[in-house]
Amino acid sequence: MRKHVDFEPAAFTELAQGPVTRPGYAARISALGPVAYWRSRDGAALLPDTSGHGHDGAILSGTVTATEGTLFRDADPGVSLSQARIEVPTHPTLSGFDDFTLAFWARLPSLAGVQAIVGVLNVVNSQASWQAILWEAMGGVALRLSTDGATLTNNVVVIPSTSITLNQWHHYIFRRQGNTVDAILDGDLIDTATYAGTLYAAPEPLEIGVRQASLNHLTGDLDEITLFDTALADATIAELDALGRGRFINPG
After folding, report:
1. CA distances from 169 to 59, 156, 244 (A)
2. Given CA atoms 210, 216, 220, 224 in this order, what sign does their dihedral have?
């Protein structure tokens, strides 16, 4: 059964009174202190990290073009990927954590095959930490985790294909708090599981839209890719979902 992540009480009051101006989605994300925050393409060769931590993604191959993003009244576009390879240099803060939250918006034209979204993972070298991936055989968008680099759990939690509408923006969140892992789609808790142990600190680059440089390319649009080394609270997730969906006037 789908369980909605509850809004904070103030949000209900604001919704009842009509649209109000609040800090924009990007400003709220930045205030929460993410490890990395990839917003939009900067020129032809870079997906900049706007968190201030310098985890810029180099566009090494394929096609990455600007596309209308998901945010209401936001000037920064999303990115449309086709056979793209985006690589963020290896850094210890991008894996090896306990609690974490991965959030992104995606608009997918197909749910077929295997399509890598974002992660730090190289199974050939037994250097796996975490990855969000669209995998038809797993039934949807899954979170893969490893505590030793070699033993990989492929479907810790899964957002099923039946919950995803093609060619429509959806808000995906994977969160781990203690030993509990949650999959949240558009503010609804879709799946939950238990997973123990510190994630492996893989000495591998973070990849967006591809796995191991040339495998499982993603075809589709991404926006507002964000990584936290903390577990965001339910109320915060609900607030971000509301901001991202234009339930409030969003100045960006």
Report:
1. 23, 23, 10
2. negative
Amino acid at 184: I
In the predicted model, residues of the chain with pLDDT beneath 70 are 1-23, 72-73, 247-252
Strands (E), the chain: 3-4, 36-38, 46-47, 57-67, 78-88, 100-107, 114-122, 127-135, 140-145, 153-160, 169-177, 180-185, 188-194, 206-208, 220-228
Give the whole-angstrom CA distance, residue 116 versus residue 155.
13
CA pair distance 10, 12, nearest whole angstrom: 5
Give the count of beta carbons closer than 10 Å to the beta carbon of residue 179.
Answer: 11
- Asked if 153 and 145 touch (Cβ cutoff 8 Å), the reply is yes
For residue 96 the two structure tokens come to: 């090896």
Residues in the chain: 252
Token pair recorded at residue 104: 């992104």
Those residues whose C-beta lies under 8 Å from the C-beta of residue 88, and which sit 6 or more positions away, are 36, 49, 55, 56, 57, 58, 94, 205, 206, 207, 208
Cα dihedral 123, 129, 130, 135 in deg (nearest 10): 20
Angle at 56 between CA 118 and CA 146, to 5 degrees: 35
Q: What is the pLDDT of residues 6-36, one digit of tens each?
A: 544 444 444 444 444 456 899 999 999 999 9
